[in-house]
Amino acid sequence: MRGRLLVRKVLWSVVTVMVVITFNFFLFRVLPGDPAKAGVRDPRLSPAAVEAARIRFGLDKPVFLNTEGGSLFDSQYFHYLQALSEGDLGTSYAFNNRAVTSLIGNALRNTVWLVLPAQILSIGAGVALGLWAAYRRGTKIDVGALTFSLFMWALPTFFLGILLLFFGSRYLGFPSAGRVTIGANYANAFEQFWDIARHLFLPTLTFTLVLLGEYMLVMRSSVVEVFGEDYIQTAKAKGLSVFEIIRKHAFRNAMLPIVTLIALNLGFTVSGAIQVETVFSWPGLGKLTVDAVSQRDYPVLQGAFLLLAISVIAANLVAELLYLRLDPRVTEV
Amino acid sequence: MNFGRKLWAHRLGRIGVIMLGVSVVLAIFAPVLAPYDPEENIRPTIDDIYAGPSSEHPLGTDDAGYDVLSLLIYGSRVSLVVGFAGAIIALFIGGLIGLVAGFRGGKLGNGLMRFTDFFLVIPDLALQIVIVAIIGQSLQNIILVIGALGWTTTARLVRAQTLSVRERKFVTRARAVGGSDFYILRRHVFPQVLPLMLANTVLTVSLAILAESTLAFIGLGDPTVVSWGQMLNFAFNRGAVSAGAWWALITPGFAIVWVVLGVTLVGNALEDIVNPRQGRHHLEPEPIPRVVPLVGAAPTSALAMRNLVVEFVGADGTRSRAVDDVTFEVDKGEALGLVGESGCGKTTTMLAALRLLPPGGEIADGSVYLHGENVLALDEDSLRETRWTRMALVFQGAMNALNPVRSVQDQIVEAIRAHADIGQAEARVRAIELLELVGIDGDRGSEYPHQFSGGMRQRAMIALALACDPEVIVADEPTTALDVMIQAQVMELLDRLRRQLGMGMVLITHDLALVAETCDRVVVMYGGIVAEQGPVTEVFAAPKHPYTKLLLEAFPDLEEPERPLISIPGSPPRLDQLPPGCRFAPRCPYAFDRCHVEKPPAYPIGDRWEAACFLLDLPVGAALG
After folding, report:
1. Which pTM value belongs to this model?
2. Looking at the complex, does the CB of residue A183 fall below 8 Å from at least one CB of chain B?
3. Which of A68, A111, B168, B508 matches a 20 to 30 Å C-alpha distance to A332?
């Protein structure tokens, strides 16, 4: 029964990815302004050159199904799918006609460098602090944790970034932008690493604080609820110490909503990455997206959006599978 | 409106309302309140750019020489308009989808939820950016995009609430008399869903405000209006950091924080009002119980309660007595029935014996002796040692008393190893033995509680209670929620094990027949006090307390099937409204003047038989007829 459930979850994710791909394709073609043509709209081009470019980008073909003779699938949509299956996301309008795949690949690596440490730090600290606040419910520690979470919620991520950047770069000497010091010559690998680490510090701190508020709040309410369950009373009656009760009975049960949250939050993480990367000029996917918007570089925007959406769907799937492992009760969707 | 008054009474809610109120006033009266007009054409000199705070410009000027304070005041308009308009759109879409999905269910409902799930996994800021970039960055488009993408949580919430309302009596009744779907939705479902939606609205508003400012900061705001996000965008990208112009950089951010914080405080307060949560739990520090010095010799029985008083402390500090002056004993090998209507303090008394009272409960007076040792005088470590070895409990509702995500056998092993210094493997063998003892196939020990039937769970709970060879076992309504055949099996099992292992037993139950069958002695509790206690056969044959007598009359008797059943009118007293005299007096057909003013003491009747009733103080012959 659980095996079938697993298959269904995987299938559902595959279907979602297909829908996202299709949605993404039409979004850029059907909406007003026909943005896909923007790349060949340079007024200096002769009509013949425009036509040649249209053919090169495949824009002369029908959008979805080819009903004008020839193969039914000789259309923009199916060519897009085919290119996609080969890992080809087209060429950028703005970045010297570079392949979108390679642009996105580099950016993704940088984003992972930023997001992963922040996620690990905030999950670790959020879970621990949330547990502590719940255990000491109603005390000053709890009130402090709640107040912190409330402020982190009300503080836009980009503004927290600006605050940290303003004070960190003016008074603490942290670099204010980029991934490395431009034009730096490194004597050894350690120096290079140190330079990158210094650049990573403020963006990671921003990201960690924002995520921390959220994780702590959810962990706290989850733990308070679990601590109120009857089986906690049973564990206490059995003569277990508070530490044992938390470790063996409360922690795993309280982690269930956190797992879901972390997955659902990946959308939130993406939005955080966009903001943090914009503020700190960190050359990741978020900054690439924003740059693509300002230059109306649709192939890059389309590719970046696709990658962001697929990573969130994949992360969701991982979380659901993890949930399935953690909770033996789940037998249906 | 009542809702508004409650919100005002909520401390943080009131602060939120004030914060939000200030913003609304600023937005409405911006032209009057702002010292400068942001539309006005100015010709800044180099000194006007990023000029620091001065009497002329209290919050300085921005990169174009405009007055920051005036821009801030005007900026509140955009934030509030986008926040509320976006939220209304989101609420409308989400509410509609949630209501239909929850009310209709079936294929349509499933399809709608799939649709919602799809939007839930799409990163919303990324999608907002893409769409605004394509359709153009006017204020109207921004509102539409924020609204059209912000409805998913509302839809899920409304659906869940609708589902639960749909099954309630008044809805099924309305359907039975032929109400149309639309009528039922409008008259019966919607009013139930509305309060929850209202609290959710507020969350949606704050999300919309944050989304607008983020889009504007990224450069996708409406260039024709002043907004806080845009002020930040301009300042940040036009050298405010290197110029050290904190006023241009920091004030718009704090304006956003101010509004979002205000909205969120109102939202949290509304949620508190709609859906009050107690939030207290079992691991809160227990107040240190008062140790009453022992008078005379220490009790030798397995369990002895001496003048136990338990109080519950409410959130406002009011105390109510749930258990008052309860005294009784259980010997090793003896079975005691603890009976009385619901809410008479039976379970509370027994939980107090192991200091396991739910949060808010306090042992205010008296003592509990287990094997001659005062439980209330034990330190944390000895208390843990005492629990489960001297006395163990079969909790009411085994479903919730067992941890759903750990195997049954694991939970027994854990109890064994908490008290005996033995290895995992050895403890597992013992756990399987215990499961077999209660008639569960040992191979099934590795299964989880939800895989067991109700009767099996109850038996597993009994096996768990036997894990450390307790001297006394407390069975709290061990057979409720089980069918009659299983009930008999479980009771037979308990009785057999008790005799086999020579344990004392306290059986908490409503079922007097069960007590007559299995118990040696009975304690009748009413409103937190012991009304009568004594040997079962004698008490049941000739009850001395009117409450015992009425309880017996309310119960069918196999030997006298013709006897009419008489229920006791009224219900037990609320703990916060205890009568001044005898607690049963308001419902007692025999009550006289003295019963209403004075508390009756326990009058001895025979060997370990007593009753707390003034009838026993009257001249001989006036007792119960």
Report:
1. 0.83
2. no
3. B168
